[in-house]
Amino acid sequence: MGYKTDCYLVKKEYVLNKKKIEEAFNLILSMQDKTTADNKNLISEKAKKDRG
User: Fold this and answer.
1) pTM of this prediction?
2) How many domains does the chain have?
3) What angle do CA 30, 17, 25 make, to 5 degrees?
4) Which domain holds residue 12?
């Protein structure tokens, strides 16, 4: 295998992995957004109770 072929294969692998990583990252972010929203609701409920 020549240098160019190796580079091509590495790049191909990298692109495939990058896609997988981005999908996983987006999934984590969407889960995080939901959790953050839930936490904000809990925090605001608690704040209301503490104040009132």
Assistant:
1) 0.50
2) 1
3) 15
4) 1-51
d(CA 6, CA 3): 5
Say yes or no to pLDDT of 47 above 70: yes
Q: Dig out the tokens for 11 from the structure.
A: 């790049």
For residue 2, is it left (φ>0), alpha (ψ between -120 and 50) or beta? beta
And the tokens for 24?
């996983």
User: Length of the chain, please?
Assistant: 52
pLDDT in tens, 2-39: 678 888 888 899 999 999 999 999 999 998 888 888 88
Distance, CA of 13 to CA of 8 (rounded, Å): 9
**Torsion angle of C-alpha atoms 42, 37, 26, 28, degrees rounded to 10:** 0
